Amino acid sequence: MGTMRWAPDILTGYEAADLGAPSAAPAAGPDGALARTLVRRIAVPESPRAVALIVHGYNDYFFAAHLADALTGSGCAAYAVDMRRAGRSLRPGNQPHHIADIDELGDDIADAAAAARDDAAARGLGELPLIVHAHSTGALAAHVWAGDRPHPALAGLVLDGPFYGLALPASRRALLASMPAVARVLPRLVVDPARSPYTAGLLARGWTFDTAWKDPAGVGATAGWLAATSAAQRRAARGLPIGVPVLVASSDSSGPDRPDNPRLGSQDTVVEVTAIEPVVAGLGMRARRLVVAGAVHDLALSAQVPRARYLAAVESFIDSVLRTDRSEAPAV
User: Fold this and answer.
1) pLDDT one-digit tens code per residue, 30-78
2) Which domain holds residue 198?
3) Using an 8 Å Cβ cutoff, are 139 and 162 in contact?
4) Does a structural domain hold residue 25?
5) CB atoms within 10 A of CB 289
6) What is the CATH number of the domain that holds 226?
7) Is 206 part of any domain?
8) Is the Cβ–Cβ distance between 224 and 100 less than 8 Å?
9) Is residue 149 within 8 Å of residue 161, measured between CB atoms?
């Protein structure tokens, strides 16, 4: 990755640097160049206790400065990654969010985590433990990454609305079952329009973001992405333990992602929350479950009351993790 070259970010008080193309993939593929972007909050707490990395989901990128503020309030130096074909890393010709394997996102998380810790050390903050806060598809990718090949400094993982499953009719289940065969021939074929009243609802409720990077109309899902995420969900469902504390958070209910849903702003309308419980059982003894009534898919973008409850729980979790890490874990 070389020396990080930081420049002012689109968010005030932040800087961004190019992580470069993944080492495991060519710099340019059939849909153009690949890039990843690391974002850092310029202000850091005095004597920070950890590096926190924020990982986005599908049709998403890092814009939730209030989440970074909460992590900073927990004593963390806050960083975020915009992964390949997403947000700040989207390049001309890229098919947004397309992947062929969940490990591609795992590579982006791994590289961003290593770069963030290296940067924190270069800023004189020390060799700090790592906390990862990941949302939706990013949470699914972070689960697989943390189960297979975690960074040795990983101390805790927060999974916000993890994409472990959907409530699907039989016709949709049959479509998903055919995706591996379709993806082998036409991996970039858009199979599902993935419309997003959920995202449009966030705009309507006052959240501000770049609609070129988080599209209220949704981003069509490719056969490759559907096959990759389905395979990762099956892995998680079979049991994929993680050796550090994990906080798995979601809303208390799921509902249809339709504009006429009266609870569009108070339940998860993207993933099926009942799919989460069986996966938590396979995460290991250090996993904790958090259910927040009235929260939306991205708990950090919920209405004020559930959002405050969620962020307070995240801060409490980080505090407990870092107190344990400082007392028991060897230096990394």
Assistant:
1) 778 899 999 999 999 999 999 999 999 999 999 999 999 999 999 999 9
2) 7-327
3) yes
4) yes
5) 14
6) 3.40.50.1820
7) yes
8) yes
9) no
Mean pLDDT along residues 263-268: 96
- d(C-alpha 300, C-alpha 296), whole Å: 8
Strands 130-135 and 154-160, bridge-based pairing: parallel
- Give the side-chain half-sphere CA count within 13 A for 251: 26
The SS3 of residue 131 is: strand
User: Which helix H or strand E contains 289, and what residues bound it?
Assistant: strand 287-292
**Tally of CB atoms within 10 A around 280:** 18
CA–CA distance, 97 with 102 (Å, rounded to integer): 11
Task: List, for residues 125-139, the tens digit of each pLDDT value.
Answer: 999 999 999 999 999
Give the separation between CA 288 and CA 315, rounded to whole angstroms. 14
From the list 137, 91, 148, 83, the residue with the least C-alpha distance to 113 is 83
Q: pTM above 0.85?
A: yes
* Euclidean distance between CA atoms 230 and 84, whole angstroms: 19
Rounded Cα gap, residues 262 and 179, in angstroms:
33
Would residue 2 count as lying in a domain?
A: no
Task: Output the six-digit token pair for 143.
Answer: 């689960």
Which pLDDT score, from 0 to 100, does residue 4 have? Answer: 87
Q: How many domains does the chain have?
A: 1
Q: Residue 156 falls within a domain, yes or no?
A: yes
Helices 304-328 and 65-73: angle between axes, nearest 10 degrees: 40
Residue given tokens 């009235």 in the structure block: 294
Tally of CB atoms within 10 A around 42: 12
Q: Residue 15, exposed/middle/buried by CB under 10 A (0-12, 13-18, 19+)?
A: middle
Interatomic CA distance for residues 191 and 224, integer angstroms: 9
What angle is formed at CA 193 by the lines to CA 191 and CA 199, rounded to 5 degrees? 145
Q: Are 234 and 202 in contact (CB under 8 A)?
A: no
pLDDT for residue 246 is more than 90: yes
CB 290, CB 249: distance < 8 Å:
yes
